[in-house]
Design goal:
There is one protein chain. β7, α7 and β8 form a beta-alpha-beta unit. The chain is globular. It has one domain: 3-Layer(aba) Sandwich (Rossmann fold), CATH 3.40.50. The protein is of the alpha/beta class and about 240 residues long. It has an 8-stranded mixed β-sheet with strand order 1-2-4-3-5-6-7-8, sandwiched between helices. Helix content is about 35%, strand content about 20%.
Length: about 240
């Protein structure tokens, strides 16, 4: 399936690493980071909703085929890609995913271009915690974590880990103590998210806005979309980017 024509294709390079990007819209900047297997039609449709709400949306393509559907084959191929890539952490605890540096650079450039109080960042599933890592050294003022699922469970320690080094977690906690909020969405019985929301509640306190839906669904704004979740995300962007 071809990627929608409304999106302008580009790329971003940081520290010798380049990834394609897809951009559309006007207004404050929002970076939407896709889930496995890639920028599916459902991810693109959610990005379009954010564009239509009045934002400049940039979707980097970190793996997979942009516009391709979620199938067992595409999922297996993307998992194979991320499992051998040094850009992503999969099982290790207490470390920040290396691709966070690239994403911070993207956020910094977008903010320098558009101005305003900052940019939004939303990750989902495998990339769900990336928005948290982007808070460390980038102008991210609206971080959203949709069903963060790395490090991969099982294992009690991995299930509770938020994919940050201790030092980076301290920096995130400092920003939250200064008034920054973090929005998180998950299904209450999703086995892939582990106990990370409990960790975030304990570490960030009232700065962590925790939204949970009943049941065993997973993809809160795409495959198993909940309108109240999408509304919460758009409201969070409005409160923190305008």
């Amino acid at each position: 399936m071809a990627f929608p024509d409304e999106w302008t294709q580009g790329s971003h390079t940081h520290d010798g690493v380049s990834h394609p990007t897809h951009r559309q819209g006007t207004g404050p900047g929002v970076i939407i980071i896709h889930e496995i297997p890639g920028i599916t039609p459902e991810v693109a449709a959610f990005g379009q909703e954010v564009v239509d709400a009045g934002y400049t949306v940039v979707m980097p393509s970190l793996f997979g085929t942009a516009g391709g559907r979620m199938t067992p084959l595409s999922t297996a191929r993307s998992l194979g890609r991320v499992c051998v890539s040094r850009e992503f952490t999969k099982l290790r605890t207490g470390v920040t995913t290396p691709v966070a540096g690239w994403l911070r650079s993207l956020a910094t450039d977008l903010h320098a271009e558009l101005g305003g109080p900052g940019v939004g960042a939303l990750g989902m599933c495998f990339t769900g915690g990336f928005a948290l890592a982007m808070m460390v050294d980038a102008p991210v003022t609206a971080p959203v974590l949709c069903q963060p699922s790395t490090p991969f469970v099982p294992g009690r320690k991995r299930a509770a880990d938020v994919n940050l080094s201790p030092g980076d977690l301290d920096l995130v906690k400092g920003r939250c103590a200064a008034g920054q909020q973090v929005l998180g969405l998950q299904f209450s019985k999703d086995p892939l998210t582990g106990t990370r929301f409990d960790t975030l509640t304990r570490e960030l306190g009232d700065a962590f806005i925790r939204i949970e839906f009943e049941g065993k669904g997973h993809s809160t704004v795409t495959e198993h979309r909940r309108q109240e979740g999408v509304d919460a995300v758009l409201g969070f962007f409005a409160d923190n980017l305008r």
